[in-house]
Design brief:
It comes from Saprospira grandis (strain Lewin). The chain folds into three domains: 14-72 and 90-272, Rossmann fold; 279-377, 3-Layer(aba) Sandwich (Rossmann fold); 394-521, Peptide chain release factor 3, domain III (Alpha-Beta Plaits), CATH 3.30.70.3280. It is of the alpha+beta class. It binds guanosine-5',3'-tetraphosphate (G4P). Guanosine-5',3'-tetraphosphate binds at residues 19, 21-27, 47, 49, 90, 141-142, 144-145, 255-258.
C-alpha cells in the first residue's frame, strides 16, 4: 500500500492561484484548466469576483456558483500529474478565506499586473505564504499592455514581497510592441501570436544568433540581448531546492487572456512544484507517506439552499488514504464519524470519491460537526497547527433585533463563526459581543445569512476599536494584573482565549510599553 501512496503523492500538485483583484487570477486559472483539458471553452470558469460590493451581489454569485463547490477545487490531469487548484475568493473582504486556503496548499502562483506591479493584497497574501515557507512562483500578466519596466518590477517584487526572484522568461517589448518572451530556462523564443494556442516557438540556444534580429527586428533583438544577459548575470540560476524551501521564486512573463506564456508556466510548474508536503500538529509532524490517514478541515461552505442547512467541510488529506464509509476519529469531538458521500471535484463535475490521497481535497457533508482546523485521523489524537485567525480590522457590536429569536441568533452566530464568516469577541466586563472582520461586506453577509438561514435578525452598533490582539504572559501574575487594570478592554475569543481590545494605535503602543512582559499577538496561533 505504501508504494501506492508514494506513487499517488508523486503525481499530485496542489496549489492556489492568488492575486490582488483584477490582476488576472480567474483568467489564468481558466487557461490552466484549458491546457489541462478540464474545460473546453474559455468562459467556463465563472468569475467569483464581485464587481459591486453589495451583499445581494455576493449572495447572487454564491447561488449561481451552486454553493461554490464546483469551483472550490479544480482538479485535472496534465502530463500524468494530478493537478489540484484551490480557488480563493476574488473579493478583498473575504481575504481571510484565502489565507486559510493557503494553509492547505503546497505551493502558490502569484499573478501580478505588469502595469500595477505589487499591490496591497499581493503583499498580504505573500506574507501568509512566507509564514509557512510556501514555494511561490510569479506570473507577470498583461504584457500586451504598456506597463512597468521588467527590471523595476523584479526590484519591486524583491523589496515589497521579500521574495528572491529568478526570472525564467524575459519579455521582448511590451504593449502594442509586445513581441513575445524568451524562455531562459528552455532557451526558446516564443513569439507573441494572439489567437494561437501557444504562440510561435523557436529554439534559440544563443541570443547572438542573427535569426533573432530577423524574428523580432534589430532594435528589439539588441534590447533582449542586453537585458537577458544582465538578468542572467544579476539573478541566480534556478535552484529547485531553494524554490522548494520558499527561498527562490521563479518569475514568468505573459498575457493570460491571450493564452501567452501560460504553457511555459504550467510546464515548468508540473516539473518543479512540490509534491504534497508534511504538516505540523501540536503532538508531532505528519509526513504524507505515513500509511495512516490524517486530514484537516480548512474551509467550510454553507449550502445556499435555505431548506437544507447542511454545509460542506473541505478537508485536505495530509497522509495515508482516506476511504469512503470508513470510521475516522473527529479529534476535537472525540467522536467516530464515517462519510457515505465524500466528494471530489474535477473542474465543474462533482463526484463521490472512494479513496483520496495526500494533496487531495475532499468535500464532507456536514450538519454542524466541523469547524475550521478540525482534524480527522484513524484514532490518533492530533491537533493541527498553522490555521491562524488574523486580527480583524473592522469592529461592530452585534445585538439581537428580535428577542423572540434569541436562540436562533445564538446558534447562527455560533455556526457562522465556525465557518469563518467573521470573528466574535465577548467582552468579559459586560458580555457584549463584538464582531470583527476584514471587510464591510462580511458584516452584511453575516446579517443576511442569519436572517435567511437561521430566521434570526441582528443589528450592529458602532464600537471604537483599533485592533484586537491575543495576549499571553509567561507569568500568571502579570496576566492577572493586566486583565484587572484593562478590564474594560478585555474580551475572549470563541476558543476562550484572552484578547485585548485596543481603542487606538496610541493605546496599543502604550500598553505594549507599560507591559513589556505581555506578548501581544496579531494572529491567533502563537
Ligand atoms: P482577477 O480574477 O484577478 O480579479 O482578474 P480577472 O482574471 O477577472 O481579470 C481582470 C481583468 O483583466 C479582466 O477584464 C480580464 O479580461 C483582464 N485580463 C486578464 N488577463 C489579461 C491580459 O493578459 N491582458 C489584458 N489586456 N487583460 C487581461 P475585465 O474587463 O474586468 O473583465 P472581462 O469583461 O474582460 O471578463
Amino acid at each position: 500500500m505504501s508504494t501506492k501512496i508514494a506513487a499517488e503523492v508523486n503525481k499530485r500538485r496542489t496549489f492556489a492561484v492568488v492575486a490582488h483583484p483584477d490582476a488576472g487570477k480567474t483568467t489564468l486559472t481558466e487557461k490552466l484548466l484549458l491546457f489541462g483539458g478540464a474545460i473546453q471553452v474559455a468562459g467556463a470558469v465563472k468569475s467569483n469576483k464581485i464587481k459591486k460590493s453589495t451583499t445581494s451581489d455576493f449572495m447572487e454569485i454564491e447561488k449561481q456558483r451552486g454553493i461554490s463547490v464546483a469551483t472550490s477545487v479544480m482538479g485535472f490531469e496534465y502530463r500524468d500529474r494530478q493537478i489540484n487548484i484551490l480557488d480563493t475568493p476574488g473579493h478583498k473582504d473575504f481575504a481571510e478565506d484565502t489565507y486559510r486556503t493557503l494553509t492547505a496548499v503546497d505551493s502558490v502562483i502569484v499573478v501580478i499586473d505588469v502595469a500595477k506591479g505589487v499591490e496591497e493584497q499581493t503583499e498580504r497574501l505573500v506574507e501568509v505564504c512566507r509564514m509557512r515557507d510556501t514555494p511561490v512562483m510569479v506570473f507577470i500578466n498583461k504584457l500586451d499592455r504598456v506597463g512597468k519596466d521588467g527590471m523595476d518590477l523584479l526590484d519591486e517584487i524583491e523589496e515589497k514581497l521579500k521574495l528572491n526572484v529568478c526570472p525564467l522568461s524575459w519579455p521582448v517589448g511590451m504593449g502594442p510592441d509586445f513581441k513575445g518572451v524568451y524562455n531562459i530556462y528552455e532557451k526558446q523564443l516564443n513569439l507573441f501570436a494572439p489567437g494561437t494556442k501557444y504562440g510561435d516557438l523557436t529554439a534559440l540556444e544563443d541570443l547572438d544568433d542573427p535569426v533573432l534580429d530577423k524574428l523580432v527586428g534589430e532594435d528589439y533583438a539588441e534590447e533582449l540581448r542586453e537585458e537577458a544577459n544582465m538578468v542572467m548575470e544579476v539573478y541566480p540560476d534556478f535552484d529547485r531546492e531553494a524554490y522548494l524551501k520558499g527561498q527562490l521564486s521563479p518569475v514568468f512573463f505573459g498575457s493570460a487572456v491571450n493564452n501567452f506564456g501560460v504553457k511555459e508556466l504550467l510546464d515548468c510548474f508540473v516539473e518543479v512544484a512540490p509534491t504534497p508536503t508534511g504538516f505540523h500538529t501540536e503532538e508531532r509532524d505528519i509526513e504524507p507517506l505515513e500509511p495512516k490517514f490524517t486530514g484537516f478541515v480548512f474551509k467550510i461552505h454553507a449550502n445556499m439552499d435555505p431548506r437544507h442547512r447542511d454545509r460542506i467541510a473541505f478537508m485536505r488529506v495530509c497522509s495515508g488514504v482516506f476511504e469512503r464509509n470508513t470510521n475516522y476519529l473527529h479529534v476535537r469531538k472525540n467522536k467516530k464519524m464515517k462519510f457515505s458521500n465524500p466528494t471530489t471535484f474535477m473542474a465543474s463535475k462533482k463526484e463521490v470519491v472512494e479513496q483520496a490521497y495526500p494533496g487531495d481535497i475532499v468535500g464532507l457533508y456536514d450538519s454542524g460537526n466541523f469547524k475550521i482546523g478540525d482534524g480527522l485521523t484513524e484514532g490518533e489524537t492530533l491537533h493541527f497547527k498553522g490555521i491562524p485567525s488574523f486580527s480583524p480590522e473592522l469592529f461592530r457590536y452585534i445585538e439581537n433585533a428580535n428577542p423572540m429569536k434569541s436562540k436562533q441568533l445564538a446558534k447562527g452566530i455560533d455556526q457562522l463563526m465556525d465557518e469563518g464568516v467573521a470573528q466574535i469577541f465577548t467582552k468579559t466586563s459586560n458580555n457584549r459581543k463584538i464582531i470583527g472582520t476584514v471587510g464591510q461586506l462580511q458584516f452584511d453577509v453575516l446579517q443576511y445569512r442569519l436572517e435567511h438561514e437561521y430566521g434570526a435578525s441582528c443589528r450592529y452598533e458602532p464600537v471604537q476599536l483599533h485592533k484586537a490582539c491575543w495576549i499571553e504572559a509567561e507569568e500568571e501574575e502579570q496576566l492577572k494584573e493586566f486583565l484587572r487594570k484593562k478590564a474594560q478592554f478585555i474580551a475572549k475569543d470563541k476558543e476562550g482565549r484572552y484578547v485585548y481590545l485596543a481603542e487606538s494605535k496610541w493605546m496599543l503602543s502604550t500598553a505594549q510599553q507599560d507591559y513589556p512582559k505581555i506578548k501581544f499577538h496579531f494572529k491567533s496561533d502563537f
